[in-house]
């Protein structure tokens, strides 16, 4: 019998059709290479859920083939799923930049997971992972230590852009290695996986340097105020700019919020953040500094409920906000967070503070490439095949169209969805059967499935009606009056009595004379009461019949 020919497969486990929980696997024979392992945060659609990670079933079924995990950079949508994957798969080596892996280590420690084999790589290095040679290429993004990946496979080179922008004047001095990307493109790239986040935005992303200029001007013009700046803790370049400006203008700097304190310590250890001996002051000692000589850098730029800025605006933090404060929100609300952010801003105004936010000036710039940058990247990589990633469906479709306008043959492009498995050979892309994939909802230490989420929606929107029925099996009769308990829905006496009469009628009709008919009785009670609520009251509470047999 002829042996089944090996083929290169790209398996999409997350990050396509969504911005979040990025995860892609390359598979060839007995070798699987995982690229990123991210998470997504819950929305109103997922009540009570702490975090959403990819469904790892496919990887668990193929555990013996996994040769390594390469992480493009340290944002949550690229590393946040690792504690849940590595909990069961500790032996898999993980590769990434020093900052990325410091963040991974911290995350695993917090969850009490023993640290796997972490391999720090630098831009320009090549690592052999199974049958794949992975070259890590420095790119600019809103976090340091971000990589694009050029992966040499038996079927040619797969180029994954990671998250990137083309910032010609980066703060860290870590430039995007465009000349190396051009070389790789010239040698021939079989498949490009290109990020799509900002495809709807024309032109180019503004350089991070510009934010520094804006902040410098604002801080210079407000010498009488205490300054509080909220930004992402992971944006070390932004934090560095604020520290440098404050040092120039004779201000001390304090960090507020757990992740801000953590990352500032981590970044200092890794020599990614430099500050004079006297510059940083402990947040507990800011009382010793004159307010107009102080700048507090804080978490909470997304209005997160437990963050330091939210605590400050609610008067629950040791930092008390007042009319001598100028607060700068140096980030844009991530879609979905707008209401929370504006609530925080309203409350800061209530306390008398002045707030600068939004697009008033360049207070924030995106870390993702806009159209002109994507054009340059795709042109340099010159791929034979193109599959867009890191975007909702419209972003990916527009990125695909852009690649076609740049000369990629339309037949050589494809849109993937979560679970897609696409075979790559020099002849073309072929869609294979989907693999098991999707969302895993994590609540505390347990997983919750879609049916539980459905229940939570119904309970939170429609309420609950419990019907308690006591049955004497011996006498074949109800041995106590029916009890009706309602939560999250109001029932008057008449309605309650009507529900009781429904139960009694169903009891008689079901001929409840033995325990075997219990389920049938419960189901009929549920149906009849549901119908009553639906037809008479236009309501849909969850109806829960409980039968106690005596
Ligand atoms: Zn990112
Ligand atoms: Zn991302």
Short description, anyone?
This protein is of the alpha/beta class. 31% of the residues lie in helices and 25% in strands.
List keywords for this structure.
single chain, 550 residues, alpha/beta, Metallo-beta-lactamase, Chain A, Rossmann fold, Ubiquitin-like (UB roll), 3 domains, eight-stranded mixed sheet, six-stranded mixed sheet, globular, binds zinc ion
Care to describe what's here?
- The protein is α/β, with parallel strands linked by helices.
- It has 15 helices and 26 strands.
- α5 (178-187) packs across α11 (371-381), α6 (208-220) runs parallel beside α7 and α14 packs antiparallel against α15.
- The N and C termini lie far apart (66 Å).
- The mean pLDDT is 93.
- One zinc ion binds at residues 22, 75, 77-78, 163, 390.
Instruction: Compute the separation of the termini in Å.
Output: 66 Å
Strand content range: 15-25%
Structural class category: alpha/beta
CATH superfamily of the largest domain: Ribonuclease Z/Hydroxyacylglutathione hydrolase-like
What's the number of domains?
3
User: What is the spatial order of strands in the main beta sheet?
Assistant: 7-6-5-3-2-1-19-20
Named once each, the bound ligands are: zinc ion
Round the Cα radius of gyration to an integer and report it: 28 Å
Quaternary structure state of the chains depicted: single chain
The DSSP helix count reads 15
Average predicted confidence as pLDDT? 93
CATH class of the largest domain: Alpha Beta
Task: Write the CATH architecture name of the largest domain.
Answer: 4-Layer Sandwich
Poorly predicted sequence stretches spanning 5 or more consecutive residues: none
Helix percentage range: 25-40%
Largest pleated sheet: 8 strands, mixed
Per the CATH scheme, the topology name of the largest domain is Metallo-beta-lactamase, Chain A
Morphology call: globular
Number of strands: 26
């Amino acid at each position: 019998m002829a042996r089944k020919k090996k083929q290169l497969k790209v398996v999409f486990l997350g990050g396509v059709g969504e911005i979040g929980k990025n995860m892609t696997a390359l598979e060839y024979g007995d070798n699987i290479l995982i690229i990123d392992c991210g998470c997504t945060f819950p929305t109103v659609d997922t009540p009570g859920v702490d975090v959403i990670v990819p469904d790892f079933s496919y990887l668990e079924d193929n555990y013996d083939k996994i040769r390594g995990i390469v992480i493009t950079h340290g944002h949550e949508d690229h590393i946040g799923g690792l504690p849940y994957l590595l909990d069961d798969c500790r032996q898999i080596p993980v590769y990434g930049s020093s900052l990325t892996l410091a963040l991974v280590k911290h995350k695993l420690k917090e969850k009490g997971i023993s640290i796997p084999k972490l391999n720090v790589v630098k831009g320009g290095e090549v690592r052999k992972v199974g049958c794949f040679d992975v070259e890590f290429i420095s790119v600019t993004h809103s976090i340091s230590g971000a990589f694009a990946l050029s992966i040499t496979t038996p079927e040619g080179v797969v180029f994954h852009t990671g998250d990137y922008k083309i910032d010609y004047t980066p703060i860290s001095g870590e430039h995007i290695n465009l000349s190396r990307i051009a070389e790789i493109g010239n040698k021939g790239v079989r498949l490009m996986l290109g990020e799509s986040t900002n495809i709807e935005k024309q032109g180019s992303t503004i350089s991070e340097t510009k934010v520094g200029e804006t902040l410098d001007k604002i801080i210079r013009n407000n010498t009488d105020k205490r300054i509080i700046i909220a930004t992402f803790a992971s944006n070390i370049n932004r934090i560095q700019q604020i520290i440098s400006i404050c040092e120039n203008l004779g201000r001390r700097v304090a960090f507020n919020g757990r992740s801000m304190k953590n990352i500032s310590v981590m970044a200092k250890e890794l020599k990614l953040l430099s500050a004079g001996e006297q510059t940083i002051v402990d947040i507990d000692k800011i009382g010793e500094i004159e307010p107009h000589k102080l700048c507090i850098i804080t978490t909470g730029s997304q209005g997160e409920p437990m963050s330091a800025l939210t605590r400050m605006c609610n008067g629950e933090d040791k930092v008390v906000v007042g009319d001598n404060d100028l607060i700068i929100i140096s980030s844009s609300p991530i879609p979905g967070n707008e209401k929370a952010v504006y609530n925080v801003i309203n409350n800061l105004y209530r306390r008398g503070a002045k707030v600068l936010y939004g697009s008033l000036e360049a207070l924030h710039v995106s870390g993702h490439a806009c159209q002109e940058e994507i054009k340059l990247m795709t042109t340099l990589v010159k791929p034979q095949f193109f599959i867009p990633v890191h975007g909702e469906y419209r972003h990916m479709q527009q990125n695909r169209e852009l690649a076609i306008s740049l000369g990629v043959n339309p037949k050589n492009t494809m849109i993937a969805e979560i679970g897609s498995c696409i075979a790559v050979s020099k002849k073309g892309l072929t869609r294979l059967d989907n693999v098991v994939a999707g969302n895993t909802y994590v609540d505390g230490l347990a997983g919750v499935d879609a049916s539980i989420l459905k229940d939570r929606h119904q309970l939170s929107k429609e309420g609950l009606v419990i019907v308690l029925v006591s049955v004497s099996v011996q006498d074949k009769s109800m041995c106590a009056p029916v009890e009706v308990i309602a939560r999250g829905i109001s029932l008057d006496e008449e309605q309650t009595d009507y529900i009781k009469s429904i139960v009694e009628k169903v009891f008689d009709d079901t001929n409840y004379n033995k325990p075997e008919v219990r389920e049938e009785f419960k189901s009929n009670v549920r149906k009849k009461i549901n119908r009553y609520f639906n037809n008479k009251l236009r309501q849909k509470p969850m109806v829960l019949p409980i039968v106690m047999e005596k």
